[in-house]
Amino acid sequence: MDKKMERRKSMIRAARKLFSLHGFEKTTMQKIADESNVGVATLFRHFPKKEHLIIEVVKEVIEQQVPHFEAIIQSNKKGIEKVDDMLNTYIKYILEEDRDSIKLLETFEMYIVFMPIESELLDEIRKSYKKISDMILSIIIEGKEDGSIQLSLSNEIAASTILNMFGTAVKKYSLYNILPEDVISPVPKKEHLILVKDLFLSYLQGKQ
């Protein structure tokens, strides 16, 4: 990796750290420059607006699952087993080390409601989600071909359910576990997500 690319990566890492700690609005470009040990003018040359950095950080968070999904796709398992592995990857989001990522995604979703971002920048987020969606779709198709998935729904709807519904549920469950126990009672547990996962797998296998 050349020095220019490494410097850019360093800026994104610094932005991700500060966004996680202070949120998007309270994190200034000057603070990001200081954290990454560059001048603010240098930071602006790489990222003309803070929104560009926000998009890069969110893309990184979304696509951090890609290597795991690629390994799942390349395995010799049946389609339904690959779906199981993929859902388990989502469930890992409730682990302590992933909570900053979840908080960033949730914060971003709220941020763009009140602070609209240019459509061209949001297209980059859509591309990241589509990359994940296409990987899920390929597993659904494979499962139908090998007979392990018996589903009357379209492949696209099944893939969308995994990405949107199950992924959102995992994020919400994880955030609930951050809150004090007296705020939400009972606080959802990892076992609840596993139950939802097993019900979904049964549905995909035509056992409903």
From TrEMBL:
Molecular-function GO terms, alphabetical: DNA binding
InterPro entries named in the record: DNA-bd_HTH_TetR-type_CS (IPR023772), Homeodomain-like_sf (IPR009057), HTH-type_Tx_Regulator (IPR050624), HTH_TetR (IPR001647), Tet_transcr_reg_TetR-rel_C_sf (IPR036271)
Name the record gives this protein: TetR family transcriptional regulator
Keywords recorded for this protein, A-Z: DNA-binding
Species in which this protein is naturally found: Ureibacillus xyleni
Keyword Protein transport applies: no
Highest taxon above the source species: Bacteria
Domain called HTH tetR-type: residue spans: 5-65
